[in-house]
Task: structure prediction
Amino acid sequence: MKVCIPTRDNNGMEGAVEQHFGKALTYTILDTNSGEIFVVPNTSEHMGGVELPPELLRKYGVEIMLCAGLGYRAVKMFESYGIDVFVGAGGTVQDAVEAWKANQLHSASAENTCAEHDHHNHHH
Result:
């Protein structure tokens, strides 16, 4: 299973979780089966590219997204690609993965996403 965390750097499991999803410089992806870690640059439209993050990350086979928070529209887009989103991540990538495995993160819903972003009609 491939788990993705929006990050600020290219430091693998020690990388810092980006608190603003759409502004993440990188996405760190952990393959929980092989233990392989790879970091991809955020080339989505938020960073001057042409795709939205869910479109970009589905190409890498991501199945789970762990993040601090994001807008509900983004959650729905991730879900449309079969990617489950969990919110409440912080610290390092390692911290986020451990919190997810310990069921300390919450499945994203309309109630726990960044509603203020939906009011401005933009995605994280």
In short: The domain at 2-114 is CATH 3.30.420.130 (Nucleotidyltransferase; domain 5). The chain has one domain: 2-114. Residues 13 and 94 are 5 Å apart (CA to CA).
